[in-house]
Specification:
alpha+beta, globular
Length: 462
């Protein structure tokens, strides 16, 4: 590819009032309205008693923020992209960045709880009206994981040096909901200060995530998956109260090692991974392992009613020895053990495979860090907490749009959804008192865009 004209023959001027850069926002905003997001915000979110009218018209402000995040905004100033060209002819009620910043800074902890309620109900409505979570009524997985988001400036509330030496962070925790057929959506999010322990508030948070999953249609088997930082009695108790199963990584300790030592050698089943992975301990590529299970009682230091007896499924990987490769014989085989504690209803190899698929939540975290969570934009903690929840709403809306666009986009990343379905330039024309979007000819994903547009503009079902 090369330039077709000389430098002196090409120029540019920003003067076309009938163009827009993000025509995909037309079906996205219509879908959000069709599902009832503005009505939910008006009903649930009430910011009163401020001197600067920050709480006026919350639905318009939330819709502006969500639409901007769907288009790729990662700061409050980026929301100004909704006011270019002919956007004012397609959308009403778009608010300026300064107004949106004032709105976010008016949030308190109570207002964020109201916004969490909006997020849960909006997810449930999306799941009912779009093919967002196929098979959720049979098998569903709730994955819980924390992440750190680096922030800059010492004036940010809650920003502290925590796990990463010399790096100031905020410490979100999130829970995703997925099925064997669907990409994960966000069931719950919370923002915590940088030094907060990974498992801080994990029990109540898991209960809220499970309530959101049930509300979204997860009426069948639900398995909560988490890493070793969530191996505690509160998380397991929250799962059992909600009628869900758990699958949690366990750190090696003398009690676990003793349980593994009781497994007979002939009980180990060899498995081969279809895709080799890098062992975190050695950096070696691993494609072969062995799996076995034993009964195990956890939390024996607590009172009897809080102790839990379930399955200890152990994956062991052979520890490679460079001297054996050099020709020296191996005196005995050494293994690295990776145990999980679970009451999964599935057979051993399937339960172990399901647990390894917990890594799917990292895709959601990466999506967020590549878009709205590139940095948390405000200096006030509660404003950033609201921004985090609005990102979750925008993420779920994009996932629903992808499901409506077709099979490929139902599994695509949110970055791909923006590139294919949102960042579509268009020229606006008016004919017979109707607006016509002139979209690019030979757009590679025009059929997916057309399917999304048709589904979003369909009349509501009875």
């Amino acid at each position: 590819m090369q330039s077709s004209h000389a430098v002196s023959a090409v120029s540019g001027v920003f003067d076309e009032p009938n163009l827009i850069a993000d025509a995909g926002l037309v079906p996205l905003v219509r879908l959000a309205e069709h599902v009832g997001l503005p009505a939910l915000v008006e009903d649930r979110l009430r910011i009163e008693g401020t001197d600067n009218s920050a709480g006026a018209n919350p639905a318009a402000k939330v819709m502006t923020l969500v639409a901007a995040m769907c288009a790729g905004a990662d700061s409050i100033d980026d929301t100004d992209r909704l006011r270019h060209g002919a956007m004012g002819r397609l959308f009403g009620g778009v608010r300026a960045p300064s107004t949106l910043g004032t709105f976010l800074r008016a949030f308190t902890h109570g207002h964020n709880r109201q916004l969490h309620s909006v997020h849960r109900d909006f997810l449930a409505r999306l799941a009912r009206t779009t093919p967002l979570l196929p098979g959720v009524d049979r098998v569903a997985f709730v994955d819980v994981d924390p992440t750190h988001r680096r922030v800059y400036g010492r004036s940010k509330q809650g920003a502290e040096v925590g796990r990463f030496k010399g790096v100031r962070t905020l410490h979100p925790i999130l829970a995703t909901l997925s099925t064997p057929l669907a990409r994960p959506v966000i069931a719950a999010v919370r923002l915590r200060r940088g030094k907060a322990a990974d498992a801080r508030g994990a029990g109540p948070f898991t209960g809220e995530a499970l309530a959101a999953a049930r509300q979204a249609g997860a009426t069948g088997a639900v398995v909560v998956r988490a890493d070793s930082q969530f191996y505690n009695a509160d998380v397991v108790a929250a799962c059992r109260r909600a009628g869900a199963r758990f699958s949690v990584t366990v750190r090696m300790n003398p009690h676990v090692a003793a349980a593994i030592s009781t497994i007979p050698e002939n009980a180990w089943t060899a498995i081969r991974y279809p895709d080799a992975f890098v062992d975190p301990d050695t950096g070696e590529l691993v494609s072969d392992a062995e799996v076995a299970e034993a009964e195990y009682t956890a939390f024996t230091g607590r009172k009897k009613a809080e102790q839990v007896t379930a399955r200890l499924i152990v994956r062991r990987v052979r520890r490679l020895n460079a001297e054996v490769v050099a020709g020296q014989g191996e005196l005995f085989t050494a293994w690295r053990y990776h145990p999980i504690f679970t009451d999964s209803p599935f057979e051993m190899l399937q339960a172990e495979l399901h647990h390894r698929q917990h890594a799917t939540i990292e895709q959601v975290i990466a999506d967020g860090k590549g878009s709205a969570l590139a940095h948390l934009p405000s200096g006030e903690f509660q404003a950033n907490a609201a921004w985090l929840t609005l990102w979750a709403i925008a993420h779920n809306l994009l996932r629903a749009a992808g499901a409506l666009a077709g099979t490929f986009h139902a599994k695509a990343t949110t970055a791909t959804l923006r590139a294919h379905l949102v960042h579509v330039p268009a020229r606006i024309a008016r004919t017979a008192r109707k607006l016509l979007l002139h979209l690019p000819g030979r757009w590679p994903w025009q059929h997916a865009f057309a399917d999304l547009f048709t589904a979003a503009h369909a009349p509501p079902a009875r």
